Amino acid sequence: MGVALWIGVAGLGGLGALLRFALDGAIGSRLGGEFPWGTLAVNLSGSFVLGLLAGAAVEGDALLLAGTATIGGYTTFSTWMLETHRLGEDGDRFVLAANVAGSLVAGLLAAFAGHEIGRLL
Amino acid sequence: MNEDCLKVSAYFGERDMHGGRFLADHLLDEFERAALQTSILLRGTEGFGAKHRLQTQRFLSLSEDLPVLAIGVDARERVEPLVERLRGSLGDGLFTVERARMVTGRVGPVDLPDALGDATKLTVYCGRAERVLGQPALPAIVDLLQRHGVAGATVLVGVDGVVHGIRQRARFFSRNANVPAMVVAVGSSESIEQAIAKLGSVLDRPLLTLERVRVLKRDGEQLAPLDEHPDEDAQRARVWQKVMVYAGEQARLDGHPLYVELVRRLRRAHAAGATVLRGTWGYHGDHAPHGDRLLSLGRRVPVVTILVDRPSAVRALWPIVDEATSATGLVTSELVYERS
To answer: Of all residues in chain B, what percent carry a pLDDT higher than 90?
Structure first.
């Protein structure tokens, strides 16, 4: 793997993180409330795009740059878990369960939908 | 010493800048340089200000600029020029000044006039891990207040400030035993008078402030109507009204944490600003003192929600606070000023 590719992975990973910070922050501050909608939106859209890339059979360096780097930096498992833990601290058991189950089910559907659409491309 | 003093409160964002530095550092440095009797920087857990942008510890991307509250206390002639000099540096933040009585050193009897429906807010300033009679001071103070029938008390731990004349800043790799902390208590003037007589004989170097407040509600019961005031005082300076809601982390509104719902509704109603502070220990009413326990996911700490707005706006926002505290919480109201 060349140096240019390494730099590309680092740069696009950072770009993904920036995108997430902007979108998550904008949604969170607009909706407020108790549910972490921002993180959900980030993870669902990321799952959809990764499904799309896989469905369209993107591979090699392109998949590394678009998938592993960009979407990898964009989506976030750790934030999902941390915010779920915070819901537990607040004693919001119903919202906690919705955040775990909803993210899993909707995330799977998003990846599936992306994959099906990708196959048509 | 038992004298009239001014208490300055600055509400702003953790990442607000002034002259290339964090505003919080700048303010606390200025408080230290002015040799104020005490100062403390409290980090909020949730809130919003003039821009109406929600910041909350609950969501990672909204937790990098949490609301903070810097408090400084000393005699009027020290605080007044300091506030005038610092006023311009606050940007979107808010400075308020409150008149209080400061008690330091030997605590003698304190006489508090007791008008109908009026109560006293007592604040005790000390170090986080200070000890009295071989016991941790903060829980001991809380116990003492509850034994004397004080309606509620909350321990708030700061991250910066001056304790007994020495600047103490919280650090990442440190036990942070000496960082400033304070106990905010509200009760009838009679119960506070008795409690501080005892506090004075227990604490090594007591530093207390006393302010008049109105207790509006306790555990859903209305004790006094919301006090109504004009938006400007006789000198045409702006007046602010501060409403504080003391409740436990476990308090619920529509099935959600009370403070979360309250802040959401206040923000939707375009309140000027709200700041939520998490205490580490405390109680209100007959409930036993509570705080977090090890290996327990749910938190049990006391939570204080502070709403500051113009008196006319507080009148309009009151139904939101009233509904939110229909079953639980201690609600107080006091006037704070733009100028002393």
So the answer is: 74
* Model pLDDT for residues B199-209, shown as the tens digit of each residue: 988 888 889 99
Query: In chain B, which among 199-258 make CB contacts under 8 A with chain A?
Result: 249-250, 252, 255-257
- CB within 8 Å: A86 and B61: no
To the question of pTM greater than 0.80 for the whole model, the response is yes
Q: Provide the residue range defining the domain that includes B61.
A: 2-338
Looking at the structure of chain B, the number of domains it has is: 1
For B100-112, the pLDDT digits (tens) are 999 887 776 666 6
B250–A21 CB contact, under 8 Å: no
Q: Which residues pair with B156 in a beta bridge?
A: B182
Q: Is B117 a residue whose pLDDT tops 80?
A: no
DSSP category for residue A33 = S
Give the residue on A whose Cα is nearest the Cα of B297.
Answer: A89
Closest CA in chain A for residue B253 = A92
* Helix, strand, coil percentages, rounded to 5, for chain A: 85, 0, 15
Q: Give the pLDDT score at B205.
A: 85
